[in-house]
Every structure is written in C-alpha cells, then in structure tokens.
Design goal:
Pathway: Amino-acid biosynthesis; L-histidine biosynthesis; L-histidine from 5-phospho-alpha-D-ribose 1-diphosphate: step 8/9. One of its GO terms (biological process) is inositol metabolic process. GO terms for molecular function: histidinol-phosphatase activity; inositol monophosphate 1-phosphatase activity; metal ion binding. The protein is an alpha+beta fold and about 260 residues long. It is about 35% helix and about 25% strand. The protein has 2 domains: about 140 residues, Fructose-1,6-Bisphosphatase, Chain A, domain 1 (2-Layer Sandwich), CATH 3.30.540; about 110 residues, D-Maltodextrin-Binding Protein, domain 2 (3-Layer(aba) Sandwich), CATH 3.40.190.80. Strand 9 and strand 10 form a beta hairpin. The model has no long low-confidence stretch (mean pLDDT about 95). Bound molecules: D-MYO-inositol-1-phosphate and calcium ion (3 copies). One calcium ion binds next to loops.
Length: about 260
C-alpha cells in the first residue's frame, strides 16, 4: 500500500504552518454558514485549497471530501477526508485547540489519519492495525475508569434547537461523571481521549471530516468508537471510550434520548 500516512502528515504539517503564519487578524473575512454561530474564514478555504492541490499533485484521480469544498468525484477507491480547520471558533479567538485533520479511506475503510494541532506543536497519527502516536509516543487510552470517575468531553452543534437539546443532555450527564470538558474541536477532543487527557468523548451531529482521522487515532489507542444502539459512528452520534466505560456512558446517553432533535 502507498505510504498514505507520510503524505497525509506532510500535507497536514504544511497547511498547519501556513495557518500559524497567517493567524486571523481583524481584517480576516469571517462569514457565517448554517447559523450565526457557524463561522468560516478565508483561512479555512485557503487551507482546504492547499490540501486539495497537494493531494491531487501527488495522487491525481483520488477522491476528496472536504468540509468547505464538498466531494470531489472520481473513480478511485481512495478517498481523502479533510477538515482544513477543525475548531474554527478557537482559531479565530487565538485559543490553541484547532487542528488540520486529514484521513485516507481505501475501499470504505479509514487506513491512515493525521490530526495536526499546530498551536500546541502536536501531531497525532494513526495507521490501521499499526497503532496511534502523538509525535513519537505510542498512545494508549485510559482503561478501567468507571463512569462516576470519568472526565468526559463533548461539543455542541451550530443549530439553536440542537444546542438546547445538547444542553439538557449534558445537564443530566454532569452529575454522574467526574466532570465535563468542551474543548471546541471534535478532532482534538477525540485525540485527547486517545492520549488519556480525557476518559471519554461524545457528541451529536459531528461530520465525517471531524472524526475520520481522530476516530482512527482513538481506536488504534484502544478505544471503542461507535454510535448509539450498535450503530457505527456517524453524523447522528459519535462516542469513544475504552470498552467498559463506553457501555456505561452509552447506556446513560440512550436513556437521555440525545438524538431527539
Ligand atoms: C466543529 C468543532 C466543534 C464541534 C462542532 C464541529 P468546525 O467543527 O469540531 O468542536 O462541536 O460540532 O462542527 O466547524 O470548527 O470545523
Ligand atoms: Ca465549520
Ligand atoms: Ca470540524
Ligand atoms: Ca472545519
């Protein structure tokens, strides 16, 4: 198999360097998308353009799905799944948890994933069946943590109605766990779970470009990743935690009907 991971990492590092060099200023154009809280900057678009150019220069004919540019059609069974900035709101405010996320899917399976967190100088990588790393450090998620002692990260979507439901759900989860974190980037949250910085992560309404790369980092670090009631991870629901905690948190979440909006 071609060295997808190395190519994805090179491209994610180049995009991250560009974003760090051109950090948003007062003159950076900011537009809204699905709601007033859903923002996109010219740097999201510039990052995705750079990533698309580099992928197609190295692998003409591959398909690409990106948050800002949509789906690039093609015949290839190789598809690149790209979030040019995951955590745009953090990026805008100068907060460090934003990432360039690039995953490679072959025949419908994610085989390589890179999450570059430039402002922290951290690059997470994973290859299917070969493990997950933060730089040179092999990752293993926390195991044996009961729900009552679990540090759980989550996030909120951009629609006001969905947020209202997510607020109700998190209000029920909070008294049953150690604490809640809302980092502001799905990819960084999931990699944080892989690295043991939190014990579990869940969110309703994240997209493939948010979790494709980080999901592989989490599973290669020993996490279970899925949706609710036996369904695979999808935009409907994403949950990752070590086996045991996964089931405990899953059952609590199901009882709260978090997909009801
Ligand atoms: C968002 C972030 C955020 C999550 C949202 C995502 P974006 O991605 O991952 O943490 O809560 O659901 O849409 O828009 O910053 O790429
Ligand atoms: Ca976005
Ligand atoms: Ca995202
Ligand atoms: Ca994004």
């Amino acid at each position: 198999m071609p060295d997808f991971l190395r190519l994805a990492e090179d491209i994610a590092r180049e995009a991250g360097d560009m974003l760090l060099a051109k950090r948003p200023t007062m003159s950076t154009a900011v537009e809204t998308k699905s709601s007033p809280t859903d923002v996109v900057t010219t740097l999201d678009t510039a990052s995705e353009e750079l990533i698309r150019e580099r992928i197609l220069a190295a692998r003409p004919g591959d398909r690409i799905l990106g948050e800002e540019g949509g789906e690039e059609p093609g015949e290839s069974d190789v598809r690149w799944i790209v979030d040019p900035i995951d955590g745009t709101v953090n990026f805008l405010y100068g907060l460090p948890d934003w990432a360039v996320s690039i995953a490679v899917e072959v025949g419908g399976r994610i085989v390589a994933g890179v999450v570059n967190v430039p402002q922290r100088g951290e690059v997470y990588t994973a290859a299917l069946g070969e493990g997950a790393w933060l730089g040179a450090e092999r990752l293993r998620c926390n195991t044996g943590v009961p729900l009552a002692q679990a540090l759980v990260s989550t996030g909120f979507g951009y629609s006001a109605t969905r947020r209202a439901v997510q607020g109700q759900v998190v209000a029920e989860v909070l008294p049953r766990v150690r604490d809640i974190r809302r980092g502001g980037s799905c990819a960084v949250d999931m990699c944080g779970q892989a690295a043991g910085r939190v014990d579990a992560y869940y969110e309703r309404g994240v997209n493939q470009w948010d979790f494709a790369a980080a999901g592989l980092v989490a599973t290669e670090a020993g996490a279970r990743l899925g949706g609710l009631q036996g369904r695979p991870v999808s935009p409907s629901f994403a949950l990752c935690a070590a086996p045991g905690l996964f089931e405990e948190l899953h059952d609590l979440l199901v009882s709260l009907d978090p997909e009801r909006d």
